[in-house]
Amino acid sequence: MNAIRSALARARSAPGLRAPRVCPYAAVGDTQPERVAAEMVRYALGGAGRQSPPEEVMRILEQGASNLQGGGEGAAEAVGMLMLAMSTQLYRSGRRQDAMEKLKATQQVAPSAAFRVAAWEALMGLRMEAGQDVSSSMSPNDSVDLSVKDEEIKWSDQDHLKFRVDAIKGLSALLNGEIDTAQTLFGGPKDSFAGVGNNQTENAVLTYGEYLHCTGDFPLATQMYEKVLEAASTEDTSGNLLAAGNMAPEEVSLGATCSYGQLLSQSGKFGEAEDYLTRALQKAEEQFGSNHPKVGIVLTCVARMYKLKAKSEGSSSIMVQEGLYRKALEVLKAPAINSEDTRSQVDLRDIISLARGEYAELLLIQSNRKAEGERMKEWAQDAWKNRRLTLAQALEFSELSEPTVVDTRIGRVI
């Protein structure tokens, strides 16, 4: 209770109507309820909250939403802000399904198009991570019961919101192997990245960059990644975001850093690639802990970089790669190879299959470990369900192959 009172007191004593410089989780309005909510979000999802038990953090956010409910101008926005933060906290705590339910509830009570799009964007992100079917035809109003909230909130007439929606639809299309649909959805946003930093579009720009990356437009993909990273490093723009779950700002920063590192390694710029992937690993460990699956995802990308580097230099780094894949699979909590019934249900199946496929290639070139490599390869091939690429295509990178991108936000290969 003391933490709740402290957060409320700090917000109410804030001078004038000045919005705080750093609030990477929500856009702050000019009303008292919104300032109170913003202070609570900063406390709950910032450094102090990370050191508190998850139950205490949720209690602070829930109590804040209860206190602000029906509090006049700005109250609905404040409650929406806190609900988005609750979903992020649930996701961080490993309660993905609960986070998804909270996002559905946020969509239902969204006071504006920006809130509805933010909740839908995060909900779609969690569905992608869970390996659920997603379609490029889905929209932010699909999950809303219009008999309860009878007006349809308009988002399509606001360019920056339409860009965010189209980016998620485009990402869905890529996961489904629908390249033509993705091309149509990403066909018009080339000027939209100008809004980075003030229109909550960093997430969409990262997705656009990944689309360009996996379709081979490395120069423009580089521009997109650099735009996102520049915005993420600027304090006074990081406070403009309405986002949640695996689409929250820290996830976007990690994703852009890791994706850019992958692009650099595929471009043969291994020194820069190692630098960016090391930064990504540090971010993942600092934000989520050294044993979090996000760390395993980045380790897989680091190992793949060493594979490309060794191939380019005609050298061998088998021991380094093997150590990285072994650690990655441990952190990813990969099931035992003989766990037949888990292949179709394992979490982060894309990444585990990729890591095991890469690891198998290392074992197969060692005469005394070929049998082990064959078992691992068979497991990876059986578990691989990517609709855009075969596992063999994902494992191979050359001038004739399609580039692959590991998206750390959703734990998928695109």
**N-to-C order of helices and strands:** HHHHHHHHHHHHHHHHHHHEE
| Oligomerization | single chain
Q: How many beta-strand elements? A: 2
Low-confidence runs: 10-27, 236-240
Q: Roughly how much helix do the residues carry, as a percent range?
A: 55-70%
Q: Enumerate the strands of the largest sheet in spatial order, edge to edge or round the barrel.
A: 1-2
Q: Helix segment count? A: 19
What is the makeup of the main sheet? 2 strands, antiparallel
Q: What is the overall shape?
A: globular
Structural class: mainly alpha
What is the straight-line distance between the termini? 45 Å
What Rg do the Cα atoms give? Answer: 22 Å
Mean pLDDT: 84
Strand content: under 5%
What would you say this structure looks like, in words?
It is a single chain. With 414 residues, the protein is mainly α. The protein has helices spanning 2-12, 32-45, 47-50, 54-68, 75-92, 96-109, 113-129, 159-175, 179-185, 202-214, 218-232, 235-238, 249-266, 270-288, 293-313, 318-331, 349-364, 370-383, 391-395; strands spanning 406-407, 412-413. Strands 1-2 form a two-stranded antiparallel sheet. Strand 1 (406-407) and strand 2 (412-413) form a beta hairpin. The longest helix is centred in the last third of the chain and has 21 residues, at 293-313. The chain starts with a helix and ends with a strand.
Secondary structure: elements and pairs:
Elements: H1 2-12, H2 32-45, H3 47-50, H4 54-68, H5 75-92, H6 96-109, H7 113-129, H8 159-175, H9 179-185, H10 202-214, H11 218-232, H12 235-238, H13 249-266, H14 270-288, H15 293-313, H16 318-331, H17 349-364, H18 370-383, H19 391-395, E1 406-407, E2 412-413
Antiparallel strand pairs: 1-2
Helix pairs in contact: 1-2, 2-4, 2-5, 4-5, 5-6, 6-7, 7-8, 8-9, 8-10, 10-11, 10-13, 11-13, 13-14, 13-15, 14-15, 15-16, 16-17, 17-18
